[in-house]
Design brief:
Largest sheet: 4 strands, mixed
Strand content: 15-25%
Number of strands: 4
Distance between the termini: 44 Å
Shape: globular
Oligomer: single chain
Order of helices and strands: EHEHEEHH
């Protein structure tokens, strides 16, 4: 039995594709990029796709994922999580308080990079371009 919104998936790495939106090749490429980023920078970026938000808003779901996953370096809260919910057609970039990426930056990446690809139904392009944009923002800061 699922208690309203309580079934937040466990972290299993930098990419967890529960909605099966990414092919194996894309998942491998994204995992490699995110691993290299984490090894060479202070922050971490993760991706989660789910089929449903189970009655939560994307914001509520994002907060719960962030609290459970604790992406980023310990004690710094500098992680970033891209969340895509396929049934509700929602996407969010959850940004830790200690991240060099701001909520405004995340909003720009969503609006200008990810959403146009998602509207075309190209999840692969949306995720890869979104990650590249976030990494570029992190490196520039």
């Amino acid at each position: 039995t699922v208690i309203h919104g309580q079934d937040i998936p466990d972290v299993t790495g930098y990419v967890r594709d529960d909605a099966d939106l990414l092919d194996e090749s894309t998942e491998a490429i994204v995992t490699q990029k995110l691993t290299q980023f984490a090894e060479s920078n202070d922050g971490e970026i993760a991706v989660l796709t789910v089929t449903s938000l189970n009655g939560l808003t994307i914001e509520e779901f994002g907060i719960r994922v962030a609290e459970k996953w604790r992406v980023g370096k310990a004690g710094v809260d500098n992680g970033v999580i891209i969340i895509i919910a396929s049934t509700e057609r929602k996407v969010r970039i959850e940004v830790g308080r200690g991240s060099v990426i701001t909520d405004a930056n995340a909003g720009q990446v969503l609006d200008n990079v990810m959403v146009p690809e998602l509207k075309k139904g190209d999840y692969r392009a949306a995720v890869v371009a979104g990650i590249d944009a976030l990494i570029n923002l992190s490196v520039r800061e």
